[in-house]
Amino acid sequence: MSKPHLILWGGSWEPLNEALTPENIDSHAKVSYVFLKEALSAHFDVTGIDEFDKIGALELRKDTLGVLSTFQAGFTQLREKRPALYQKIAPLLCRKKFSILDETTGRRTCEDKLFTVIPPDYALKNKLQNFLSPSRAYHMGWCASPAYCYPQEDQTFTVFVDHGHYAGDDYTDVVMQALRSLDADVRVFIQGNDGVMEWDLSQGWRPETYQRANKVPWAQMMSYYRRAHLFCLTHKESAGLSSIEAAMSGARLVIPHLNGQAFLHEGLLQPPLDFKLVACDVEALRTCFEEQIQRGVDKQANHKALKEHSSWDQAAQRIYDVLAGIK
Hints:
Layout lengths: L4 E8 L15 H13 L4 E7 L12 E6 L4 H8 L1 H7 L7 E5 L11 E4 L7 H9 L3 E4 L17 E5 L10 H9 L5 E7 L2 E5 L18 H8 L4 E3 L8 H8 L3 E7 L2 E2 L12 E5 L2 H14 L3 H9 L4 H12 L4
Parallel strand pairs: 1-2, 1-3, 3-4, 4-5, 5-6, 7-8, 7-10, 10-11, 11-13
Antiparallel strand pairs: 8-9, 11-12
């Protein structure tokens, strides 16, 4: 029996010089496209469109179920950024416009179906928004690739500090002060404007505004995550893909909270995720780091649990279960 046809649209906002692969991707928009395309191919005959503006050359087959965008609410963004292009293709895609999205919000979208990272029914507010929205939302899940996100054992306890926030409040300085006060044999890596560096705890820390200008190749980032026992967030995220990649690589997430709000969306703080919530102040973080170092991290167990729960294959299966019912 032949597989149904699905067009996957995502990857790059700019023109590409080469096809996207795990070895040359450098953003999470590209990560989602590359790994979801591979996973969906188990269920669909997938045609890929790997640039934002290439959607203008869209060609449908008789058996095309629709177009799934890995750009966040891609069709809504197309309507806003390229209205003429949207008007050109929209008539071809009646009830066939699908996109991934971190979570359902009050923003009105033009998609027919949304596949969300955050469960769309995790709270009453989300249930109501999903009920009232013309874009029906389904749970895709939080995803990482177990083929790349796996633990590498290191005798020295290692902490990876996430990059600073480029568009909001950033608490990297608080985290670094806490780490500097430790009296322990620990390695610290941090992502900054010059890439990933190992930080000597005996040295001072100079805060910087994260620019996202010098992107680190994704495969290189995974090599650092594999070594980490702890992955510490530094700012509020809706559904940070780095966090699940580090967690699947075996790390325990250290998630600060401020004024009752965790830096990671509460809809993601569920088993089998290994995480520790801690107040966002120097003393609380220092105590937390000391406790985690003493407690240790079972990186293999963390990897195994998330491999079975949060891989791109699971996301592809959930998407297929929804789209397979389309006639």
